[in-house]
Records
---
Amino acid sequence: MAAEEKARATYEWLINLSDDPDVTDALRFLRQREVVHFQRFGETLNLVHDYLDRKKYY
Ligand SMILES: [Fe+2]
C-alpha cells in the first residue's frame, strides 16, 4: 500500500511539472489507477484480517 501511495505522489508531482494538457490527462489517469490500487489493497487487507481473526475449530 505504501508503494501505491508513493506512485500516486510521484504522478502528482509530475502533473504539477507538466504544462502539456495531453500529458497531464494521461498522468491524471495513471494517478487515479494508483488510488484504486490503494483502495483494493486496503479492502484485501481487511479481508485477510477478518480471516485471521476467525475462531478456529480443530
Ligand atoms: Fe499501483
---
Amino acid sequence: MSIAPKARPNVEKMSGYTPGEQPRPGERVVKLNTNENPFPPSPRVVEAIRTIDPERLRRYPSPSAEDFRRTAARVHGVSPDMIVAGNGSDEILAMAVRTYLGPGDVFAYPDPTYSLYPVLAEVGEVKVATVPWAAGWDLPVDGLLATGARAIFFANPNAPTGTLVRTRRVRELATLFSGLLLVDEAYVDFADENSLNLVREFSNVMVCRTLSKGYALAGLRFGYAIAAPAVVSEMNKVKDSYNCDAIATSAAAAALEDQAYARQTWEHVRAERVRLSEALHRRGWQVIPSQANFVLATCPDGNAAAIYRALKGKGILVRFFDKPGLQDKLRITIGTAEENDQLLAALSA
Ligand SMILES: Cc1ncc(COP(=O)(O)O)c(C=O)c1O
C-alpha cells in the first residue's frame, strides 16, 4: 500500500471531538449521556417526513432552507434575512469560526464549556483564550474583554454545568465588546430567559439554536443562527451550497410550527429536573442548579469514574469527563420519570 498523504500539521496534532457513546439501534439502554429530549418529536414532524413529495428529493433543496427560515422568522418575530440554517448547530458554530476567525486570531470563551469549541479552533489555527467562569458561574466579562479576542462564544445555559447567565449580564458584555459575540443557546428551551432580544439591539450578537434538544430531533441534524442581516449575509458566503436537505428542512419547519407540543416536553423536563436534583441531593450528591435538560452532580465519594462504570454495567449511560475539575462529577441528562427512577434505583443499589 502507498503512504497516506500528510494532513495539515495542525490537523495531524489534533485528536478531534469525542462524542458521547451512541448505542446501536435497538440496543436497550437508559440513555442519559448526550442531552437528548426523552420524548418523541411532534407528530407533525413525523407527518412532514412521511408525506414528502419525491419530486423534492429529485431536485436540489433550497440553498438557504427558505421554508424553514420563513417559519423560524415568524416564530421568533424577526425577518427571514436574520436567519441562517445549518446541519445541526455544530455546523453553525463551525461556519461562525470560518467567517469571523482566521489563523492567529484570538477566540475567547469561558471554561469549562462545550468541548467542540477548542476543536473548531484547532482546525482553523485560531488562538484560544479560555477564561474561568466567575464566582457563581457568572460571565467573566472583564476577563473575556482582556483577552483582546476577535470573537467570544459562550453556551447559555452552559454545558456541562447547566448554569444560566442572565440577559442583563449578556447585554453588559455586548455593550463593551465589538467583535462577534456568539450566544450558543442549544439548551435555552429549558431555561427561564434567552438572549434573542439582544440580536435586535446589537449587530455583533449571534444567537445559535438547535432542534436537537428542545424539539427532540438530534438525529435529524438541524440548527440555526439568528443575527443581524449583515452577519447572516457573511455566513452565507462560507456555508456549503446545499447544507440542509429537503427532508430535514421540512421536518424542522414542522417542529417549530408545533410550539404547543414542544412546550409540553420542556415543562416535563423542567419538572423532572427539580425532582431528580432533589433526589440526588438527598443521596448526598451536590447538584449545580440547572437551567438545561441535564444536571452536573458531584458524587458523594468523589469517585465519578467508578459510578459511571457501574451504571454502564447496568445499562444506564451518563457522561463522565476525565478532565481536571470534572473528575468527581457526572453529567446526567434528564430522562422520562421512569428513566430517572431507574437511575435513582441503580444509585441506591
Ligand atoms: C452547548 C452545545 N452547543 C451545541 C451543541 C450541538 O448541537 P447540535 O449540533 O446537535 O445542534 C451541543 C450538543 O450537545 C451543545 O452541548
